[in-house]
Amino acid sequence: MQRYIDCHCHISATDFDDDIDDVIVQSQKAGIMALIGVAEHAGEFEKVIQLSQRFPGFVMPCLGVHPVQGRDPACPRGALLEDLDSALPLIEKYKEHIVAIGEVGLDFTPRVVNSDAGKESQRQVLIRQAEIAKHLNLPLNVHSRSAGRPTIHLLKELGVENALLHAFDGKTSVAMEGLHAGYYFSIPPSIIRSEQQKLVKQLPLENLCLETDSPALGPEKQVRNEPRNIVISAEYIAQTKGIPLEKVIEVTTHNALRLFPKLKTFIKV
Ligand SMILES: [Zn+2]
């Protein structure tokens, strides 16, 4: 039975180039009914769209400019408004096909940004994309790192109503503010080795979704993560909350369909 939804996954990452068909088959065998393929920069958009056409009704495209940019992963930089120049026309072109805007957000890790100006430009990039999401009536798929409070405060200030906070690393008290704004929080398989376990305990199931962030945030560090590991997130939530796995699957899938309503029109039943 197909029943999980992976709400945040980098299926267009080069890590999957060699065995994408097998990764998709394994995901389906594990019970995933759809996965949201997020993008990080304009250069990746066409690939995400192509994957959604190659696996129709299963890979759901989501386009956006990530707060961390730079071709060389060893030298990351914060997003700049210029990064939107090539991205926005493509978002406009594919607006009918995408289920959300993302991956967007704020990343205030010191090695990414070390000045107020740098943080401000990330904010501007997020603000612009939040406006577009509102205009297109799409939810946001949000990254926040060392920036939990500024991210949730900015989303609220902007009047964002529909957002998924993926792999949230902020305080539970800040997450609660997001919860009251109606935001959802997705839990990756790395939760089993994470410091964010309190979050799972304290946030109600009604505000949780499942994600893998593949190929990152797997159960084991340095090992490629895959969508099929979503089962690990679900089992962890079930154990922590002392509820049946079936309940976790049912409610998180219901939440995902509510937050990303276009999934319903694209999923092949
Ligand atoms: Zn991600």
Compact summary:
The protein is built from ten helices and ten strands. With 269 residues, it is α/β, with parallel strands linked by helices. The chain is globular and about 45 Å long.
Secondary-structure element order, as H and E?
Answer: EHEHEEEHEHEHEHEHEHHH
Mean pLDDT: 96
Please tally the helical runs, counting DSSP H or I stretches of 4 or more residues.
10
Radius of gyration, CA atoms, in whole angstroms: 17 Å
- The beta-strand count equals 10
Note the quaternary state here.
single chain
Q: Report the principal-axis shape.
A: globular
User: Roughly how much helix do the residues carry, as a percent range?
Assistant: 40-55%
